[in-house]
Specification:
CATH superfamily of the largest domain: Tetratricopeptide repeat domain
Structural class: alpha+beta
CATH architecture of the largest domain: Alpha Horseshoe
Helix content: 55-70%
Distance between the termini: 70 Å
Number of strands: 8
CATH topology of the largest domain: Serine Threonine Protein Phosphatase 5, Tetratricopeptide repeat
CATH class of the largest domain: Mainly Alpha
Number of helices: 19
Length: 571
């Protein structure tokens, strides 16, 4: 029986909790305090209109039922229902409704004061509220020339609201006006004094300042929403990302970067119609944006994204037209030999393949390959020039036999080898070896690395006779320092030396070294199987100073089939 009662009680509790949470959907939470920031209990308040009143509790918290249909972001006017209280802040009682979710920050603070309490005249906040009320009432009569008598009547009416005399209020306002420095408050004081030119100047300055502050906050909020969308895109949350990008655009409606990302998010979410609309706006926006322009790289990317979208929708005529535009924009924006042009050509070629225009697609891919080759060559040439300059500076600074010279010479030699400049590579490798022998010794592991580079260089040219003594000497150094069973560098040296011996026709000797390498490799495999925690054998080419110089490929690798582009970053 007791278990049944507990079950019923639990069900009732859950229902009550759910009801309470649902009720908060239409509740405005207020924090009620006085001008000294002391909480005020037992104050009855309501929202103007058809809404019930509620009192503040001992913590100064009041929960007001909102008029039907009131949503977050809209405003309501608060009224003090009973008691000798008057509203100080907001001076007109108007508040913006915060979100209804359970966030500790989602409340509104108001300031009230007791009527007839002359202490409020020492509060700048209270005096500002009185000035605001007086000037509002006077302003409502400004459709005609207002007399001093009418001004006096307005002052009397507002003073009566606070339980004070007009003279007390007037003295407090004039005293306050001499103390304040804020242009908004000074402007209110001048407006109260009917000094309209000075009030205009001060309030204009205040307005300009507040607009600038709003613009800064608005820009920050827009960026926040954009980067939120980027984070959601990274998690594959494309629908959520579209909402974030839309919020960013609500704050910066014509931002081309936001529009481009929104288009991609819609596309990834499967909403191609909205993706097309946003993509078209992105191209137009970036083209007309002073930061970008028609031929800026950012415009090129947005144009390419739009072309890919048309392709996905099967709008082949539109897609081809935009691919051509994207290619022209990319060439102008990045330069005709930039890798982005090659990337655009690859996408264009894929499109041409899809519409069965194979020869045109092949032409585009050939051009893309040529661009990549030229760019890679330019990159190599620059790297070589930088390395030569670094080596020269080091020689001037430390002399020709400094230990760093060996490493710099070896690195430059590898760059020459990659560039096909074999004689230059040989000269640098020999120099590196000479300096290394002087600085660390002939039997050092780093010396073995330089020996292997020379052996590999000669081997790549099939100069096996020249390669053999360097490979033999490197193997001896490695075995001496690491032991004959070293699983990494020694095995690699055994394999390399065996290849050279075969090149010399010394097959029987080569078989012996191959057998040794095989035996060491099998021992390593058994060791890994015995101890599964041990990691697999690292790439033997990654040992220090052991990199076999790469042999340039006769042709650059064929580009992979492009995937959907990811959202670009803001410029």
């Amino acid at each position: 029986m007791s278990a049944t009662i507990r079950s019923i009680c639990l069900s009732i509790t859950l229902v009550l909790c759910a009801t309470s949470l649902m009720a908060e959907e239409n509740i405005l939470v207020l924090n009620v305090a006085n001008t000294s920031d002391e909480v005020i209990p037992n104050v009855s308040l309501k929202c103007k209109g058809d809404a019930p009143a509620a009192g503040s509790d001992r913590n100064g918290t009041a929960r007001l039922k909102l008029p039907f249909g009131t949503r977050p972001g809209s405003s309501v006017v608060l009224q003090i229902v009973a008691g000798d209280w008057v509203m100080i802040s907001p001076w007109d009682g108007r508040v913006i409704i915060p979100p209804f979710d359970n966030n500790a920050q989602n409340f509104v603070s108001i300031v009230i004061a007791k009527k007839s309490d002359r202490q409020i005249l020492t509060s700048g906040k209270a005096v500002e509220a009185i000035v605001s009320r007086v000037t509002r009432e006077i302003g409502s009569k400004m459709d005609r020339q207002i007399s001093e008598e009418e001004r006096r009547l307005v002052l009397e009416m507002q003073a009566r609201e606070f339980g004070l005399t007009p003279d007390e209020v007037d003295r407090a306002i004039r005293e306050w006006s001499r103390k304040v420095t804020d242009p908004y408050q000074k402007g209110l004081a001048e407006l109260y004094a009917s000094n309209y030119p000075e009030a205009t100047r001060l309030l204009t300055a205040s307005l300009d300042q507040k607009i600038r502050e709003i613009e800064v906050l608005q820009n920050q909020a827009a960026n926040n929403a954009f980067f939120l969308g980027e984070a959601q895109m990274g998690q594959g949350q494309y629908t959520s990302a579209t909402e974030a990008f839309k919020k960013a655009l609500a704050l910066r409606p014509d931002d081309g970067v936001f529009l481009n990302s929104l288009s991609i998010a819609y596309r990834m979410a499967g909403n191609l119609k909205e993706a097309e609309r946003a993509g078209e706006r992105a191209v137009i926006s970036k083209g007309g944006d002073p930061r970008f322009g028609q031929y800026h790289p950012a415009t090129a990317i947005a144009t390419l994204n739009l072309a890919l979208l048309y392709q996905e929708e099967g709008k082949n005529i539109e897609a081809e037209q935009i691919f051509k535009q994207a290619l022209l924009t990319t060439e102008r924006g990045f330069g005709p030999d930039h890798p982005e042009v090659a990337r655009c050509l690859d996408y264009f070629a894929d499109f041409l393949d899809r519409v069965d225009r194979k020869s045109e697609a092949a032409e585009k891919r050939t051009r893309a390959g040529a661009i990549r080759s030229r760019f890679e060559q330019q990159t190599r040439d620059k790297t070589i020039a930088d390395s030569k300059q670094l080596l020269k500076l080091k020689e001037q600074e430390s002399g020709p036999d400094h230990p760093d010279i060996a490493q710099l010479a070896s690195t430059l030699g590898s760059l020459y080898l990659e560039n096909g400049q074999l004689d230059d590579a040989e000269s640098l490798f020999k120099r590196a070896l000479s300096v290394r022998e002087k600085t660390v010794g002939k039997d050092h592991l780093d010396t073995a690395g330089d020996l292997q580079k020379l052996a590999s260089l000669y081997q790549s040219q099939r100069k096996f006779t020249a390669a053999e003594p360097f490979a033999r000497r490197a193997l001896d150094i490695l075995e001496k320092n690491l032991g004959p069973g070293d699983p990494y560098r020694v095995i690699y040296a055994l394999d390399s030396y065996a290849v050279i011996l075969r090149g010399l026709g010394r097959t029987n000797e080569a078989l012996k070294y191959e057998a040794r390498a095989k035996e060491s490799r099998e021992k390593q495999i058994r060791s890994i199987e015995f101890n599964p925690v041990q990691q697999s054998m690292p790439n033997r080419m990654n040992a220090p100073n052991m990199q076999a110089p790469p042999i340039p490929a006769p042709n650059p690798p064929a580009p992979k089939k492009p995937e959907k582009p990811k959202p670009e970053k803001p410029f």
